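Protocol step 4 of 5: obtain the predicted structure for the target chain.
Materials: sequence only (see below). No template structures provided, no constraints applied. The aim of this step is simply to have a reference model before the mutagenesis design in step 5. Sequence pasted as it appears in the construct record:
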Amino acid sequence: MEDETEQPEEKEETGSDSDETEDSPDASESAENAVSTEQDDKKTQEKVANTQGEDKGEQSPKTNLYSSIAKALKEDDIFTLEDLDTEKIQSADDFADTFNREIEKKVQERFDETQKKIYEAMNAGMTGDSIREFEGMINQLNAISDETLAGEDSQAEKLRTDLIFTYFYTKGFDQAKAQKMTRKSIDAGTDVEDARDALEELKTHYRGEYDRKIEETRKATEDRRARERDMSKNIEKKILETEEPVKGVKLTATERKAVLSQFKDYVDKTDGKENSVPLNAIGKYAKENPIDFQYNLNILYYLTNGFKDLSKVLSKEKANVKKSALSDLERIIRNPASGNGAELDFGNDRSAESKYNVVFD
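Step 4 output (structure tokens):
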């Protein structure tokens, strides 16, 4: 009985030890501390790695030099663009684009309304002549005072007539109908009031036409530039990926990169201050040597069967080399003395009785 009563007590003690091991606060706290220490070690290692990378001139994946500079400039109110997201500035080109936008903003802040409109038109791609035409018309209308308009002299009467006629003409009336409506206004004695209304209507009309022309030109310019970008990408892809651009001629990767550089690098621009176009090396050659450029281009086009095959060019070159080699051999045979004083002896019988200059055994 004593053994039976002692056994359960031993089991309970054993069970108690097990519970203490599993649920002990000290053991749990030790485990948490171990995990926390591991995490701290990892963070410390990452910081050390980042610091070492910065010491070596390397950038951490989470930071970017250009983005950091832009952020600092924005905090100092140097970059003031409202839509600026510094996190998107990841390259030198991104930074340059932001910098140029900031300069443009600063410049426009100093412009009056007329200067802003001219600047907008130029950036859209409008020609100087077109801008001058619209600006000239609007400035002329703005310069007409009410006193001048209401004058009783012949010059004032002509001004009112021109304004009323132009108003009807811009509304879609043909010339005869516009003249009839103008005469009706003068005969009715309402030409002064009609001219005032016509003046305001014409200001609105030409400002609207100006805006429409700017938008139309901007869209056309953007479409053209998009096509040019697509074409440039396709040309670049073809240059880099085409190992044999013309039948019979293969280019190494280095040579293809050199061709691409020749295509992309601008070395000159077209003449003229307005709408000047940048030129690469070929464009510059064509500009400076228009006759030779067309001549060489057409000759090469003919010899290569439309830039498809260089066999004619290569075969002519090989033929010239072969002909030159045969000529040299013939000269040596006819004149046995070589250039260094030695002689070629093919078993020649040099006696006076010999009938032949060369005897082969």
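Step 4 remarks: The chain is about 70% helix and 0% strand. The radius of gyration is 44 Å.
Proceed to step 5.
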